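User: Okay, second chain of the day. Same drill as before: sequence in, structure tokens out.
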Amino acid sequence: MKYAIETKNLTKSYGDFLAVDKLDMKIKNKSIFGFLGQMVLEKQLQ
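Assistant: Same drill. Structure tokens below.
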């Protein structure tokens, strides 16, 4: 199967802040997917 997005062991940091740690995921073609981070959630709750 082909995937629109596939990650294996993805890690992302900003300086000393670890934002993503060892993320594995597969997003199928023709799927809708999104991440909601802390900043987005705080703005939605205000």
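The beta strands are 3-14, 17-28.

User: Thanks, on to the next one.
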